Amino acid sequence: xxxxxxxxxxxxxxxxxxxxxxxxxxxxxxxxxxxxxxxxxxxxxxxxxxxxxxxxxxxxxxxxxxxxxxxxxxxxxxxxxxxxxxxxxxxxxxxxxxxxxxxxxxxxxxxxxxxxxxxxxxxxxxxxxxxxxxxxxxxxxxxxxxxxxxxxxxxxxxxxxxxxxxxxxxxxxxxxxxxxxxxxxxxxxxxxxxxxxxxxxxxxxxxxxxxxxxxxxxxxxxxxxxxxxxxxxxxxxxxxxxxxxxxxxxxxxxxxxxxxxxxxxxxxxx
Amino acid sequence: xxxxxxxxxxxxxxxxxxxxxxxxxxxxxxxxxxxxxxxxxxxxxxxxxxxxxxxxxxxxxxxxxxxxxxxxxxxxxxxxxxxxxxxxxx
Lengths: 270, 90
Prior knowledge:
The complex is a heterodimer.
Chain A: H1 12-21, H2 33-50, H3 57-74, H4 83-92, H5 102-147, H6 150-163, H7 169-173, H8 211-246, H9 251-269
Helix pairs in contact in A: 1-2, 3-5, 4-5, 5-6
Chain B: H1 6-12, H2 29-37, H3 43-52, H4 57-68, H5 72-89
């Protein structure tokens, strides 16, 4: 049994790959697994009946494939699910589905199919890598038994531990991103400021003015008239001084003063 | 965000009322006819579908492609138009 590949136990992607390897025309995309199995049986198993593929890798691969196949074949077909089940399945993948009504059912079924396929692909990749590592482990063990050197053992142990963890570094960088079917991640670009009717809004529309500058500005506003006032005052003072000097006898000034005092006293009487 | 078309701006400027489906951005005569044949003759019916899909971009675009064969640009225009209208009026 380990040497004969039973196509029903293989995954759909494995069947596809096998068909391509044997130059068999693939059925249209999104066909059911049974179609692939039929084609596989017809074309490939006839060939295998002739030659015995007795590679050592086969049992390892079959074991690895069979480990993950039962899970794959148990996956229900989205079109067979009830509305509630479909919603629950989508929720398992983190998709919060809206109402599943007539117009939305097909869309959600398709979405679930995509999620199942991408999940199957991921598991298949993991299985293939496990196969590679298990081969290297087998070879390493053989070498160990032959050489029996502790140094080699430690090196191989290190190699195994470094190869085994299969982590996707890209998805680690972006843990929040949803997986897309094409693997292309796109994020929205920040809008360009100042372009296309998007005026730049400055946080501080007016430049801040300190109280000192405000005072200085007010003083400056009055400074010019003040200068004029001082100038005029000085001119008047000069004129008065000249008059005072020119009039040789002080009687003119004293007459003025008397008249002024008379005027004041007259006013003061009232 | 890319700049919007005049059609988009006209649609988002006011409640859609009884506007025909061809008033939606991205939906021209050909697509409008196909939508009307499927029963989506008014813009509000397409809005209904948009809302039932919980305004999800991917699902709405897939649906639009299925129902009337819209290309990626038309899908994007229609989605953006409805989304902006909902932001403004819903």
